[in-house]
Design brief:
Elements: H1 2-29, E1 38-43, E2 49-55, E3 66-69, H2 87-93, E4 98-102, H3 125-144, E5 149-154, H4 156-167, E6 173-179, H5 191-197, H6 211-217, H7 222-225, H8 240-249, H9 257-269, E7 291-296, H10 304-307, E8 320-325, H11 339-342, H12 346-349, H13 351-360
Helix pairs in contact: 1-6, 3-4
Length: 367
Amino acid sequence: MLEALLTILFVLVLIHAIIIVLAYFWEWFYAAPTRQDETSYLLTDDGWRLAVHRYRPESAVRGHPVILCHGMISNRYTFDLPAAASLARFLKENGRDVWVPELRGSGMSAKPGLFRSDVPYSWQFEDLLRRDLPAVIRHVLARTGAPALHWVGHSMGGLLIEAHMAANDDPHLASATVIASPCDFSKVRNESFQHLLRLKWLLKLYPIFPLPFVGRFLIPFAHRLWNHSTGPFYPPNIEPQTARRVIALASESITSKKLWLEAGAYLGSGLVAPDTGRGYMEGLSNSRVPLMALAGSRDEMAPEPAVRPACETNGNPVERKCMTFGKTAGCGEDYGHVDLLVGKRVESEVFPVVLRWLETHDSTEAH
């Protein structure tokens, strides 16, 4: 009996070791630097050190600076993936002063280690919203001297600015663009998410959420693993090597367990809300900040019905615009969750839409 238990324990330890080693191997294998012009650091009011990467245009700066904010388990590579389309470089080449922050736990910002950590293993949406987001806005305004700025957020990066707009009349926001950000979780019916919700008990066994390690372990098959309706990619619209780089570089291995549990709570209740108090999106329709929401036709992580409510105004005279990218809308490809940033045709179909929106809302008037 003891021998059998020891054998099982050894096998489990071996499997964990293989998954960890392969996860870091693929990160090393695909390692490549992003092409920012400078990196600066800031401290949040609770002491987290955040990296902010700047992309300076070679010609004269046009309009307000632009912040590009990544999603829940991601980092700067979301907007500047090697050998793929880059929204950061596209905007830079079109005269924009671009700033790409990495939130706590991501990229070059402070984050926990696998075996030893100087920072907590878990943080919450509230920390990102109340501490990281305001610190990033203050940092960019101070470094540029600009009277206002634009915020472009992918997935959770879009939810953050929506929640900020709902709670604050921020005079420094010229506009907001949210890409694949599901502000109404009652419209998200992704079967992969439902399977994960059944595994919440596993989180009690680990100090960190183990799924990203498993995802990297499966990198050789990343492009084929997910079917068209449940994964982060729509396979016909993403090159296999790009899909693998997204998993290896643009996703973090060690992420917050609390953040994952919060996302599960949002899916369960359909409401983006803390445990107590009002929903984060209450009041968004009253914000005076222009907002554009972009959705992918094949994105089941943030389907168009879940994204569109951000554009409701309830009679508020502010510009709100919702666009869905896919073949039925005249695009050459259908789009999934990540495809809106690294898909085959984003430089001709998606990025110009973002640029035009920024140019239209470069007024220096406060909202």
